Amino acid sequence: MKTCKSESLGGQTLSVWKQDDNFVSKAVLATLKISCSAWLLVVSMGQGAWAFSGLNAVNRISLSGGVGVQTNIKYGDEPLQDLDLYFPKPLAQSFEQKTAVTTQYPLVVFVHGGSWKNGSKEDYAFVGRSLAKAGYITAVINYRKAPDHVYPDFVNDTARAIAWSYHNAPSFFATTDKLAVMGHSAGAFNMMAAVSNADFLAPFGMRPSDIKAVIGIAGPYSYDFRRYGGSEAFPVDADPNVMMPNYLVKGVQPKYLLLTAEKDRLVHDSDTVIMAQALKAHGAAVTTGEIKGASHATSIGAMATPLQWLNDVRAQVLDYLAAEL
């Protein structure tokens, strides 16, 4: 085992590569010009908001693997109402070679986190690539953010992006019969609010039951933003007791997988417990699980295929999608 040391992390020594295994090799790190300290930033990110330098490093090591991407597709008329589509390698090859496409692919819509004020679809390209490598056409969406846009703007954007993906699926060889929605952190809140309450999808011609599976990772579904942060993303004098998704479940629901991170110090697992109870009380089928060894950041970072040795979030996500779509 080879290790590197970072004085900036208090001299902590972490294993960051291992030859002839699933770890990223030293040769790959050198090729990508990722320093030891940058790599340690990726694997031992803090419990707060995901550091964007870390996201850049994750994207640099998350090679395309032959998948295709079409960027900056508008799903609405406002700034940040756009998305990127990632295509599995066989479909990307058909596009490139201009050959007939005879297969329809399952579709995943991914909503990123960032405390409702940070992050972009580009930062989470590694999620789009990872899911496309597994055979899913994947839409990684942007949405309008605080402080210029507060609740429910980012939830409405999420609902609009889901509906755009659903209604336009045939044009990019996805099937509406196999649609999943996935989100992390604030993005998990967005997609939960947009999907579990039928009132958000209805203006865009969809129902919650049009979605076959929902995956939430480390989502703040039921918390008091007046005490625990994020108040700038909600209206002044807003009452969380009438805005959190667990209070607003409405309509026939899809199936849910709700995951928590074992070492999450940013979002408490009680959010998932409370949300699961609310969904089950409404008749929804809900599976809960824990990502062992994961922090808030690595609960999504390990979706990158070179980082899947960090924890099993990718395996849990792909197993659930395979079973439900």
Question: What features would you describe in this structure?
Answer:
The protein is α/β, with parallel strands linked by helices and 325 residues long. It has a single domain, classed as Rossmann fold. The chain is 33% helix and 19% strand. It has twelve helices and ten strands. The protein has helices at residues 26-32, 36-43, 52-61, 89-97, 125-133, 153-168, 186-196, 198-201, 225-228, 270-281, 298-301, 313-324; strands at residues 2-5, 13-17, 68-74, 82-87, 105-111, 137-141, 174-184, 213-217, 255-261, 286-291. The protein has an eight-stranded mixed sheet, with helices on both faces. Strand 5 (105-111), helix 5 and strand 6 (137-141) form a beta-alpha-beta unit. Helix 6 packs across helix 7. The longest helix is centred in the middle third of the chain and has 16 residues, at 153-168. It is globular, with a radius of gyration of 19 Å. 46% of the residues are buried.
Q: What labels would you give this structure?
A:
globular, 33% helix, Rossmann fold, disordered N terminus, two-stranded antiparallel ribbon, alpha/beta, eight-stranded mixed sheet, 325 residues, 12 helices, 19% strand
